[in-house]
Design goal:
- The complex is a heterodimer of chains A (261) and B (322).
- Helix content of chain A is 77%, strand content 0%.
- Chain A has 10 helices and no strands.
- The two termini of chain A are 36 Å apart.
- The mean pLDDT of chain A is 84.
- In chain B, strand 4 and strand 5 form a beta hairpin.
- In chain B, helix 4 packs across helix 5.
- The two termini of chain B are 35 Å apart.
- The chains are: A mainly alpha (261), B alpha/beta (322).
- Chains A and B meet through helix 1, helix 4 and helix 10 of A and helix 2 and helix 3 of B.
């Protein structure tokens, strides 16, 4: 257990160092949330919604957070492939799953800055703050959302070791997931046939839950429902991942997909 | 000597499918039923052309690829299914500028790899300094790896291998792209590793390097081992062959063909010069080649008997197509 924690912490440290020196990552982390906040503000400004700033800040913050995590955690597999370090970490005694987990947690911790930048931009440019109606509910909801992002990113990152077309899949994941999970526009506005997909992703519940903590009309029963469904889905994804990762590791060794050629 | 690698009838197929409706499946045997063993403390070379199956063999040995069939054991354990028992006792180095985090310093790279190999923190710090000293990177330890030369990156990779005190090093073309000085430093490091009792399996394209470093060499062609012996043993395969270099003035137009027709001549390489042409002739030991050529022309300017090299053996085994 001590070894596992050391590997995760060591990988997080290296990941943060490695990520922050990349200009593209810095763009996603700093410029993207500012741009998203400005765009969403003008999109929602004339809407009839009274709490539109909540949508602006949460939408911009969560989208930027997701993009950072998606582009770095999932894209990391490709970067490791280009560096030629993917076979090295795959064959390391530490275990590939722990290393990937460390990378994703590192990215997530660093990416949380994008949320803070969003709040700061909204305050600075539009003088708009956010009022958390249910602060004791917000903290576990936010932590749960972070866990959700970590679990989902890990599933995607692992699945993408099977393919060399990581960049293509990464781009396919970024915006569709943000839309389907209701980061910007409520998931309820999606067509009926898309709702099962939306509700099967724990991020949808994470967004719903966090947004609920800003709404005075969001009841305790609704909070509990969202939290429970999200928790169950996260657990299901974790179990599925545990089963999948052995299959994926075997497949990677059969398909020889860890390197460029 | 103790056997540390045992490979028997090892095969690795790569399957490609093409087409959407009529899917066409092509199976290519990258490694086709090879058998060999490696003993503790020796430098074992694998030679072959591009696509001969050298790298695929190494990848199966380092637990990166699953064999299609056959036995592939490292330190007594199967490389598929028992990977965990092998991974902390081996290390591998791929040629070129890959295999390290270029945006981290050499020291950070090594400290991270120490972490991945479960080396306690205090020991890791000491070991990082120690291995940096061995590979001569102490001065550049805190510079980003992206500022390193190719040779320095290769040395950093070797130091990564030293971190976990690996018993076996697998090196895939470790001197590829290095300048002569860098390649020599690398070869000296490989010798130092052997002196420290490490077993080394290396692939290379450079025949003189294999000859200089390896205790035994396997020559691969199209996924199969076509010869396996010590460098001298391999040369003995051509013990009945001698090589002579003749410098002959331009005289006859068809001299090359006439020499080739001499009974006992195995091969002739011809290089045209301004006044003189150079003929490199491989012939049967019993043949008096000088007399035979003098029967054809008296314009021989000079001649020298050549020592048989591993390259001659390699070319012979590849069917002279190289």
């Amino acid at each position: 257990m001590r070894n596992a924690i050391r590997i995760i912490l060591g990988t997080m440290r290296i990941q943060i160092k490695n990520s922050f020196v990349r200009p593209m990552y810095r763009f996603c982390l700093i410029v993207n949330p500012i741009g998203n906040t400005i765009l969403l503000y003008y999109m929602f400004r004339n809407s009839s919604m009274s709490n539109f700033m909540t949508y602006v800040i949460l939408g911009a913050g969560l989208s930027s957070l997701w993009e950072c995590i998606c582009f770095s955690s999932v894209g990391d597999i490709n970067r490791e492939r280009w560096y030629g370090t993917l076979p090295v970490i795959f064959c390391a005694p530490a275990g590939f799953n722990l290393i990937v987990l460390g990378k994703i947690i590192g990215n997530t911790v660093l990416s949380l800055a994008s949320m803070a930048i969003t709040v700061f931009t909204a305050k600075l440019l539009f003088g708009a703050g956010i009022q958390i109606a249910n602060l004791p509910g917000f903290i576990p909801a936010f932590l749960m959302a972070v866990c959700t992002f970590v679990v989902i990113s890990q599933v995607f990152a692992y699945l993408l070791t099977l393919s060399r077309k990581t960049t293509l899949f990464m781009n396919c994941l970024s915006i569709p997931i943000a839309l389907v999970c209701g980061f910007v526009i409520p998931a309820e506005l999606l067509p009926d046939w898309l709702l099962p997909l939306s509700y099967s992703l724990p991020m949808t519940w994470a967004v719903k839950l966090i947004r609920g903590t800003f709404d005075v009309n969001f009841t305790g029963k609704e909070y509990l429902l969202c939290f429970t469904v999200q928790l169950i889905e996260v657990l299901l994804y974790t179990i599925a991942f545990q089963l999948l990762y052995r299959i994926i590791e075997r497949e990677v060794k059969i398909k020889a997909s860890l390197e460029l050629m | 000597m103790e056997q540390v690698i045992y490979v028997e009838n090892l095969r690795r197929d790569f399957i490609k499918t093409k087409g959407l409706i009529r899917r066409k499946r092509t199976v290519t045997a990258a490694v086709d039923g090879i058998t060999f063993d490696v003993r503790r403390g020796e430098i074992f070379g694998i030679l072959g052309e591009n696509g001969a199956g050298k790298t695929t063999t190494i990848k199966m040995l380092i637990t990166l690829l699953t064999p299609t069939s056959g036995v592939c054991k490292v330190l007594g354990y199967n490389t598929y299914g028992e990977e965990k028992k092998i991974r902390n006792r081996i290390n591998f180095i791929f040629g070129g500028e890959m295999g390290v985090y270029r945006r981290l310093s050499g020291r950070d790279n090594l400290q991270y790899f120490a972490n991945l190999y479960h080396i306690p923190m205090a020991e890791a710090k000491r070991k990082v300094n120690e291995v940096l000293e061995i590979v001569g990177l102490t001065d550049k330890a805190d510079a980003l790896a992206e500022t390193y030369s190719k040779g320095m990156i290769q040395r950093l990779q070797i130091s990564r291998g030293l971190m976990n005190d690996a018993e076996i090093f697998f090196m895939d073309e470790p001197t590829i792209g290095l300048d002569p000085l860098g390649a020599r430093t690398q070869r000296n490091l490989i010798r130092t590793l052997k002196e420290h009792g490490k077993t080394i399996v290396l692939t290379t394209h450079y025949l003189y390097e294999a000859e200089e470093l390896c205790d035994r060499i396997a020559i691969m062609n199209k996924g199969k081992i076509v010869a396996l012996d010590t460098p001298q043993g391999l040369k003995d395969l051509l013990e009945n062959t001698k090589t002579i270099e003749l410098v002959i003035k331009h005289s006859m137009t068809n001299l090359y063909e006439r020499i080739k027709e001499i009974s006992g001549v195995r091969s002739v390489e011809f290089k045209e010069g301004e006044e003189n042409d150079i003929y490199l002739i491989k012939y049967d030991r019993d043949l008096d080649i000088l007399s035979e050529v003098l029967n054809l022309t008296c314009d021989i300017t000079s001649f020298s008997q050549k020592e048989l090299t591993l390259e001659d053996v390699f070319i012979h085994l590849m069917g002279d197509k190289v």
